[in-house]
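discrete fold record:
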Amino acid sequence: MVTMMNPSPRITISDPTRRNRFWLLLLIATPGILVIAYFAYVLYLRNLFATCPPDCRRADLAGAELANIDWAGHDLSEADLRNAHLQNSTLAQANLVFTNLTGANLQNANLQNAHLRGALLADANLAQADLRGAQLNGARLFNANLTQADLRGALAKAADFSGAQLTEMRIDDETFLDAKWRLVWHIVNEPDAARDLHDADLSGAYLENVNLARANLQRANLTQTNLVGANLSSANLEYALLLQTVVDDSTQLDARWRLVWEILNQVRAERALANANLSRANLHAAFLRDADLTAADLRDALLTEADLRRAQLQDANLAGADLTEANLRGADLHNADLRAANLSGVDLSLANLRGAQVDANTVMLSSWRTVWEILNEGGAEHDFSQRVFDYADLAGADLHGANLTGAHLSHANLANANLSAANLQNATLTAANLQGADLTDANLTNADLRRAQLEGAKLDGAILAGAILPENVAGTTKSP
């Protein structure tokens, strides 16, 4: 007999309960719906329903013919107005925040009290434009033409006027210009021969045809400064930075400083600079590889990080020069004056220091000073055990009887050096040049001479027990 089970009773939700749940869910979801709707409007729908003008935010108006139109008070923020024709237009109190006006023609435009914060005005023509009271903070005016523009009362904090023409531009005490650009304005509009501009930052300034004769530009930054047609005759350009400075044949520049400019901006190796006057010149990072600087005047010159590899500096005057981190590898400094020179971190590998003048004020690594001492004061019978002379030019040095136990002389130039009776036990002489060297009675026990050049070397009586010899002299008879 089968027993029938009664189904479970169904639970029903009353209509009022359903309604309450609906309104609760709607209440919870409403803020999210409103937020989504707001952003949809701001990012998309607003542009569909907006009309330009007056609302031209982010509008694409590049190259548009908009001359003589009244845009006063209109919103053109973040709009693309590249190469737009806006001459004689009225843009008073217009919102041009972050607007791209690159190459736009705004000649004679009325921009009184316009909001141009962060606007891009590169190559724009603002000649005779009325910018009184305009907000130009952070605007970029690269190469803009502001000839006869009126900026009285304008605010241009952190605005960049690099390459901008400021001739006859009107400003007053209420105009806010960064100190750099106010100085440039004074130079352009208030000519003053013999002006004191020492340490001035004039980088990127447009100074075409400006009179700077006899001006003091010592240590001035003239990087990318436009000096075409400018008069700098008899100007003091000691330590001035002339890298990427724009000059041409019409620029009046003393021969000494034009040469410095050429070295920095017309890079080439093997430059002929014998007897050149480069004293107190700023030659930071200059490319002077293989240059002939014989007897050149480089007193107090700034040669930090300069490339002077294999340069001919015989008899050059480098007294007081700053050569920090310069590369003088293979340079010939024979009879050069290095008194009070700063050679911190300088690479003097295989450099010739014979006859060079060094004093207590010369700053150089102790290893290179020792090399200088050996060459110029002799190193016979001195103790140089464990010293590092890798890549040192010690050709012809007198090291007879010297203690060079464990010394490092890899790739050193010891050609024709006197190493007779020297103790070179455990010394590292890999790839050293020992051609013609006198090693008579030298102790080379366990010395490493792999790849060393020994052509013409005198090894009579030398102790070679355990020495690692180059292949070309592998059969050399060792002394007992």
